[in-house]
């Protein structure tokens, strides 16, 4: 059984989507054992409690510098024998200690079709605000492996979502979550757990089922 940790800073809607998918039998071979948040009031921690999963509040202000924080985060993950890290709206850029310990085992969900509207400063509602400001007609979500850059790792899955003429950032965010994020994130985790994701020349190839 693959042991997964979900890192999240906010409400945890993608965490809930993962838990619901697991309950429905869509993510076999994965056990969600740890939820970590850098925000004490993150509702994701309550979702973890309701699901019987250990939730840990790990604030950056507890440590003198970024390096110490990421060493503590790495050690926490290692102590729980985590096999895969899932970033579900975690607004802390992972440092070298975590990246080295879990290379090739970190997946992130991003609310746009990478390489559009991604990178530094593009997170949460800000992504959808910029989509509408630019007049884009199609947006979506992306699941990708995490590397040293911001939203630059190999893409695993993407799903497009139409932008409505009367959309607000809030209505667009909701549609992208419902139609894309909550669909492709569980699917990508299931593919990873089944050993069906292979990185070749910086790109992800999805292997056929055996």
From TrEMBL:
<dbReference type="InterPro" id="IPR004607">
    <property type="entry name" value="GART"/>
</dbReference>
<keyword id="KW-0658">Purine biosynthesis</keyword>
<comment type="function">
    <text>Catalyzes the transfer of a formyl group from 10-formyltetrahydrofolate to 5-phospho-ribosyl-glycinamide (GAR), producing 5-phospho-ribosyl-N-formylglycinamide (FGAR) and tetrahydrofolate.</text>
</comment>
<keyword id="KW-0808">Transferase</keyword>
<dbReference type="GO" id="GO:0006189">
    <property type="term" value="P:'de novo' IMP biosynthetic process"/>
</dbReference>
<feature type="site" description="Raises pKa of active site His">
    <location>
        <position position="151"/>
    </location>
</feature>
<dbReference type="GO" id="GO:0005829">
    <property type="term" value="C:cytosol"/>
</dbReference>
<dbReference type="InterPro" id="IPR002376">
    <property type="entry name" value="Formyl_transf_N"/>
</dbReference>
<dbReference type="Pfam" id="PF00551">
    <property type="entry name" value="Formyl_trans_N"/>
</dbReference>
<dbReference type="GO" id="GO:0004644">
    <property type="term" value="F:phosphoribosylglycinamide formyltransferase activity"/>
</dbReference>
<feature type="binding site">
    <location>
        <begin position="12"/>
        <end position="14"/>
    </location>
    <ligand>
        <name>N(1)-(5-phospho-beta-D-ribosyl)glycinamide</name>
    </ligand>
</feature>
<feature type="binding site">
    <location>
        <position position="66"/>
    </location>
    <ligand>
        <name>(6R)-10-formyltetrahydrofolate</name>
    </ligand>
</feature>
<comment type="similarity">
    <text>Belongs to the GART family.</text>
</comment>
<feature type="binding site">
    <location>
        <position position="108"/>
    </location>
    <ligand>
        <name>(6R)-10-formyltetrahydrofolate</name>
    </ligand>
</feature>
<feature type="domain" description="Formyl transferase N-terminal">
    <location>
        <begin position="2"/>
        <end position="184"/>
    </location>
</feature>
<protein>
    <recommendedName>
        <fullName>Phosphoribosylglycinamide formyltransferase</fullName>
        <ecNumber>2.1.2.2</ecNumber>
    </recommendedName>
</protein>
<feature type="active site" description="Proton donor">
    <location>
        <position position="110"/>
    </location>
</feature>
<dbReference type="InterPro" id="IPR036477">
    <property type="entry name" value="Formyl_transf_N_sf"/>
</dbReference>
<comment type="pathway">
    <text>Purine metabolism; IMP biosynthesis via de novo pathway; N(2)-formyl-N(1)-(5-phospho-D-ribosyl)glycinamide from N(1)-(5-phospho-D-ribosyl)glycinamide (10-formyl THF route): step 1/1.</text>
</comment>
